[in-house]
Amino acid sequence: MKLSIHSGNIRFAGLGGTGVIKASDIFADVVFRLGYDVKKAEVHGMSQRGGSLSSDVRWGVSVDSPMISEGECDLLVVMEATQVVVTQGCLKSDGILMQPSDIDESKLPSAKALNVAMLGRMSTLLAFPLEAWQAALRTNFPEKLWAANDKAFALGRGEP
Amino acid sequence: MHASQDSQGRLLLSGNEAIALAAKHCGVHLATGYPGTPSSEILDGFQALGGKAQWAPNEKVAAEVALGAAFAKARVMVTMKHVGLNVASDVLFTMTYSGMQGGYVLVVADDPGMASSQNEQDSRRYAEAAVAPMFEPCDSQEAYDLLKVAFETSERWGIPVLYRITTRVCHSKSAVKPVCSPDQMPKDVYNPSIQFERNIAARVMVPGHAKPAHRRLRAKLAEMEAWNNTQGPHRTEMRSANVGIITAGICYHHAREAAPEASTLRLGMTFPLPMALIKAFVAGVKRCVVLEENDPWLATALRAAGLQVESKNDAIFRFGEMSVDRVRRILRNDDSIEPVPPRGKPPELCAGCPHRSSFEVLKELDCIISGDIGCYTLAALPPLSAMDMMIDMGAGIGMGLGLRHVLPEAEARKVVSVIGDSTFLHSGITGLLEAAYNPPPTGHVVVILDNGTTAMTGQQEHPGTGRKLNSDFTNRVSYEALGRAAGFPNVLTINPIRERDVFKDAVQKSLAKNELTLIIAKSPCILAVSHIVAGEKERKVWESNGISGGVKTEGKVL
Questions:
Q1: Smallest Cα–Cα separation from B171: which of B39, B282, B76?
Q2: Alpha carbon of A17: minimum distance to chain B alpha carbons (Å)
Q3: CATH of B354-547, one of 3.30.230.10, 3.40.50.2000, 3.30.930.10, 3.40.50.970
Q4: Is the CB of A47 inside 8 Å of chain B's CB atoms?
Q5: How far apart are CA A63 and CA B460, in angstroms?
Q6: What is the CATH number of domain B4-231?
Q7: B344–A37 CB contact, under 8 Å
Q8: Which of B119, B330, B470, B490 is deepest in the core (most CB within 10 A)?
Q9: What's the pTM?
C-alpha cells in the first residue's frame, strides 16, 4: 500500500535518545525541499531524558496546526517496541504502523541507525524521488556516518 | 544554524531559530538570558549566526545587563522561560517607568500544559501588571517578522517590550521567508551611534522622579493603544459572518484547522489591546468566540470592555495546551469528558548519571530531602523517590533551613538541601547566606550536585563551568570559596560515584554535627563528559599562559 505524497500526517514516536527527533527532522527536510508547506511539532526538555517522546510532521499545500489530532495520523513510525501500545491511538482506521520488528535489527550497522532504516522503509511507501531522501540524509549527518546510513537506509528498503 | 532551505529561499525553522535569525537581521547588539525550556535555543542560535550572546547567572541579571546596554542606545534581547520572568520581574516593573533609549525586547516562553515546567503561569498578566507592550507571534514566520515591529515599538516609545511565545511556537518548525539570507544583513539594518547621555531624572527612580515617570508611562500606553488600533500587526480575515474567532499565538492555527469557515481576528500585539479594532470585528459576526490557552485573560478584558463574547469552559480547558480537537469542542460547546491519552513512560535519570549515586546515598541515610530544579528533580520519581519537595529555583536551601528550625531535633537532623550547580549560582547563593546568618540549632547540610553543566535544558555553560556561551574560557567561580566566605566551617568536595563511601560517610557525620556543612558532589554529567574532560585539559593550557585569575583575554586558547 502506498501513501499520498501530496499531503499527510506522520508521527514518529519512541523514547528519548532513540532517534525520534532526528528522523522527523530528516523527513521534514525531504518534504520541505520538494516545495511543500511543512509543520513539525515536538516537545523538548524533560521528555528527552529517556521518557516517551513523539514528533509530528505534517505537509501539504498549506498546513495549519503543527500537531496531528488523535485518529488523523496516516503513518506511525515507532522506534521502540514498548511505545506501540501508547501511541497507536493516533492512527486513522486505515493508517499504517511501522515498528522495529519490521527491520532485521541484526543487520543494522549500529543500533543507532534504526531511525535511518525506518526512513528507508518509509521511502517504499512514499514515492518521493530517492534523491530527495538521500540529500536529506547527507545534510543531516556528518560525512563519517554516510556509509553506515546508506547501509541502514538500503536495509529498510529491503535492498540487498 | 543548520536549517533546510528550499529553492525559493524558504527556511524550515523552529520559532526559537526564527527569533535568533530575526535578532541578527534586526542588528541586535547584545542578547542575554538564562536557559529554560522552551526558550533555551534562541541564544545559541543567535551566537551561531555571529551575534553577541551570553548566559547570565539568572534572568534578573540578564535583564539588568540588557537595560544598561539599552541606556546607551543599543538594541538588546533577553530570553527566559515564564518562571524566569518572576525572577526578572523586579527589573521589569521599574524599567517600564524609566524606559530606555535603545530597543529592548524581553522574550518570555510560556509552557501551557507544563511539558517541562513546574507551573502553567500566564505571562500575559505581566504585560498588564508592569505596563509593558506585548507581542504574541503564532508561528515561525511571525516570530521572525514581529521581532522587528517589537523593536520599533520599543524604540518609538522608549519602553521594554514583552515578546511572549509558547512551547508550540518555540519548538514547532514551519517555513520562514527571511528578508535576506541568514549569512547576510538587510541594507536598512538598525545602526545607531552607541553613546551614553546623562539624564538623572529619567533613570534614577527615586519617588520624585518615578511619580512623573508613572504618568509618562500611562500616557505612552494610551498612545500605543491608539497606534495598535490602526497600525498594529493584526490580521482580520472575514469569512462566514456566522462565527468569528478572536485569538493570538498558536491557537490561530488550531482555529483555522478546526473551523476553516469561521472569520478570524488574529492579534499580533496583545497589550495594550486594540479595543476599537476588536469591537469592529465583534460587531461584524453573529457569534464571537475568544480562543486562548490557560487563563481567560483576553476574554475577561473583552467582557470588561462591554463586549458580548463566548469563551472556553475554564473548568475544563484552562488546564493544558490548546489543540484542534479542543477548539472543535469549544466551538460546539461540548463539555463532555475528554479522552485521556495512554500514559507513556516517564523520563528518568540517565544510566551512569552521577545524581543517581548521590540520591541513593541520601535515601540510604533516610534523609528528608529539600530539593531543587534540574535533571536531578527526576530523583523524586520511583524507583528512587528521593526528593521530598521542589518549588522554585534555589528554594531547596531555604525550605531545608525552615524545616530544620521547627522540626523536633531527631527529625531536623535528617534534613538535607540538595541543589544543582547552575541552580545554585542562579538563586542558591542567597540561601547559603541565610544558612550562615540564621543557622538552625542542628546546623544544616547543603549538597551542591556539581555535574559541570546546565544539564536539563541542553548542557549550557554557566559561571561554574568557566566557559562562556561561545565556549571561550573565562573566570570560574569556586563553590568551596563561596561556602567558606559565607561562613560554612565545613566544606568538602567529593565524587559521589568514585568515592561513594566517602560521600556517604561525610553526609552521615555532617548530619550528626550541629554545624553548617557544604558538600560539593562533583562528577560530570554523563551526556557532557567528553566536553568537560577535554575542556579541563584545554583550560590547563589556557591558565598556564599566564592568564589565571582576574580578567582574562577574549578568545579561545589553542
A1: B39
A2: 10
A3: 3.40.50.970
A4: yes
A5: 33
A6: 3.40.50.970
A7: no
A8: B330
A9: 0.96
Domain positions in chain B: 4-231, 235-331, 354-547
- CATH architecture of the domain B235-331 equals 3-Layer(aba) Sandwich (3.40)
Cis before residue A66, ω within 30 degrees of 0? no
Per-residue b or e along A14-32, where b marks 16 or more CB atoms closer than 10 Å to that residue's CB: bbbbbbbbbbbbbbbbbbb
pLDDT by residue for chain B (558 residues), tens only, comes to 567 788 888 999 999 999 999 999 999 999 999 999 999 999 999 999 999 999 999 999 999 999 999 999 999 999 999 999 999 999 999 999 999 999 999 999 999 999 889 999 999 999 999 999 999 999 999 999 999 999 999 999 999 999 999 999 999 999 999 999 999 999 999 888 999 999 999 999 999 999 999 999 999 999 999 999 999 999 999 999 999 999 999 999 999 999 999 999 999 999 999 999 999 999 999 999 999 999 999 999 999 999 999 999 999 999 999 999 999 999 999 999 998 888 889 899 998 999 999 999 999 999 999 999 999 999 999 999 999 999 999 999 999 999 999 999 999 999 999 999 999 999 999 999 999 999 999 999 999 999 999 999 999 999 999 999 999 999 999 999 999 999 999 999 999 999 999 999 999 999 999 999 999 999 999 999 999 999 999 999 998 886 654 444 444 433
- Helix ranges restricted to H, B171-206: 200-203
B254 to chain A: closest CA residue: A65
Q: Which residues of B touch A (CB under 8 A)?
A: 2, 4, 6-8, 10, 12, 37-38, 40, 115-116, 139, 167-168, 171-175, 250, 253-254, 256-257, 323-325, 339, 341-350, 375, 378, 456-458
Nearest-by-Cβ selection for A16 from B12, B257, B347: B347
Distance of residue A93 Cα from the nearest chain B Cα, in angstroms: 17
Nearest CA in chain B to A24: B173
The CATH architecture one would assign to domain A8-155 is: 3-Layer(aba) Sandwich (3.40)
ipTM: 0.95
Per-domain residue ranges of chain A: 8-155
| Sheet-wide strand order for B30-33 | B53-55, B30-33, B76-81, B104-110, B161-166, B134-135, B269-271
Contacts 24+ apart (CB under 8 A), B552-556: B552/B473, B552/B474, B552/B475, B554/B472, B555/B472, B556/B471, B556/B472, B556/B473
Check for a shared fold between B4-231 and B354-547: yes
Q: Which residues pair with B55 in a beta bridge?
A: B33
